[in-house]
Design a protein that fits this description.
Elements: H1 2-30, E1 34-35, E2 40-42, E3 46-47, E4 55-57, E5 62-63, E6 68-69, E7 72-73, H2 77-80, E8 84-85, E9 88-90, E10 95-96, E11 101-102, E12 107-108, E13 113-114, E14 119-120, E15 128-132, E16 135-140, H3 141-154, E17 156-159, H4 160-163, H5 170-182, E18 185-188, H6 190-195, E19 201-203
Parallel strand pairs: 1-4, 3-6, 4-9, 5-10, 6-11, 9-12, 10-13, 11-14, 13-15, 17-18
Antiparallel strand pairs: 2-19, 7-8, 15-16
Length: 207
């Protein structure tokens, strides 16, 4: 009985959190920010709300937790009584790693991956993998994907529906740990879970 009550409270909290997110993204859109379809937006993604009309995010983009998107730079304000504005354009199918910072006046992609913890201070070319501070291209997207295809073929894969934390058993945890001792391990099928809006990520189709 207690377990059922706790599960019910958790579901109610998740619905409240998602409703707050929907209202947030609807407000930003009403202020002129472009957010495409099937964009995955964590609750802790920080947006420069004072200039959000300068920010455009294309379809099928994804963000890790605690990313920042800035559309202005006010560091010279004390000395010049002025701040610099800049458009931020994130083209379709870009994926931005956790805790990345995107500065004013840059364009990313399309089909560009930005590694976790990167600082995007200059525009990034399409079909690339970029990392660092400042973020720079380190591989083409095709080479990056081919490398992981080869590793998947030689390594071990686990189905998301059976090995997600929500359904993972003790035996499953041990199996996964043993596989990691042997080599490369990949979780497959998780994208469909993102489409369903699991966790703290909101699909903008529902916003």
């Amino acid at each position: 009985m207690l377990g059922f009550a706790l599960s019910l409270v958790r579901r109610i909290r998740e619905r409240i959190d998602q409703e707050r997110q929907r209202r947030r993204w609807q407000r930003l859109r009403s202020l002129g920010m472009h957010i495409g379809n099937s964009v995955f937006l964590p609750a802790d993604l920080w947006i420069d709300t004072s200039h959000c009309h300068l920010i455009s995010i294309g379809d099928n983009c994804g963000f890790g937790p605690q990313c920042l998107i800035l559309a202005h730079d006010a560091q010279m304000d004390e000395f010049l009584d002025a701040g610099r504005l800049g458009r931020v354009t994130i083209h379709p199918s870009c994926h931005i790693g956790a805790r990345s910072v995107i500065l004013a006046g840059v364009t990313i992609g399309p089909r560009t991956i930005v590694g976790a913890g990167s600082v995007v201070s200059k525009s990034l070319p399409p079909n690339t993998v970029c990392v660092g501070s400042p973020a720079v291209p380190v591989a083409s997207l095709d080479d990056y994907l081919e490398k992981h295809r080869s590793r998947m073929a030689a390594g071990t894969t686990f189905e998301f529906d059976k090995y997600d934390q929500g359904s993972l058993t003790s035996a499953g945890r041990e199996e996964m740990l043993a596989a990691l001792d042997r080599g490369a391990v990949y979780m497959v099928g998780g994208h469909s879970a993102e489409l369903a809006g699991r966790g703290s990520t909101l699909r903008t189709d529902d916003a």
